[in-house]
Amino acid sequence: MTCTAAGGGSCSSPVAGLTQQSSIGAGSMSREMVYNNPNQPGYSSMTGSLGDVPTFTQMTEDWAGRDTASAPVTKFSIEDLGATRRSKVVRPDGVRIEQDTNDDPNSLYYGLLIEDRTYPDEAGNNPIRRSTVAWYRTGDPAQDPNNADPTYRSPRPSRTEVYDDRGQMTATDYSYGTYYNQVVSKTEYGYGGSTRLHSVYSDYENGALYRGDWIYRGTLWFDGGTYPNWSGPHLFNLTRERTIYAADGTTRVAQTSYRYDEYSLVARTDAGQACRGAGATRQPDDGETIRQRRLARRSDRRGRDPQLRRLRQRRHSDHCMLPADQL
Hints:
By secondary structure, the protein is mainly β.
């Protein structure tokens, strides 16, 4: 686009025409990840249906300032083994990671991890780490459409086993309470998976004022009538007490107690967040920890019976309570 300058000359206009196109380039590359797609179902035609997601077997990664001889490549593969499915990932450093998952669509544990292994090389058979997990559900969630079961029948690990590069195995057992996925007991075992090291027991605050309630569970949001609705603050899994026992299962090693919301709130619109003023104290929100007591055994240097050591810890929120003479 041109313009007429003084004296009849021409000049370049700083404003481009409406139809003028500028040059657009890729710019400077900072990071690039390229996937190969050997299987592209539905892509042969623009209107073809996509019967499956595109798959890939490797990813090449590059970035600005790379100082390696070639771009690192990560390899992927999936192998169907009947009741299980095995996925493999080979990292650029040659380390291979395998995961076996439940592939039985009729199982309550369909799709969940069964075992994972880490190998130091791409083709070796001696893992440097291996772990397994056993799962537990209270029942089939399809048989409880209204979620009357407070665990929601969700899958939860009941035992994990971990093996090192020498094949030595340690294990952990888990048990759960009535509500949600609350672990009420955890027992850890040493090599061999049967020698108990210690146990941890937990108690939770499951009062209705914290959990709330779920009403109209059997209805839908769009049915035009009642609809599912939660009431209450929905504060879940608040620990009230955690106790650790020694290998004998009876000797208490440590215990920590928690208490919540022991004071009522006083509304003060003029107090703000600063909580200033003589005698002003901060008050907790719902579910805020305000008192913690820890009991732990302490050895006595003179050889006497160990005593219990008590620790207290307070944590407050930004709410304020003022002395009565300032109300």
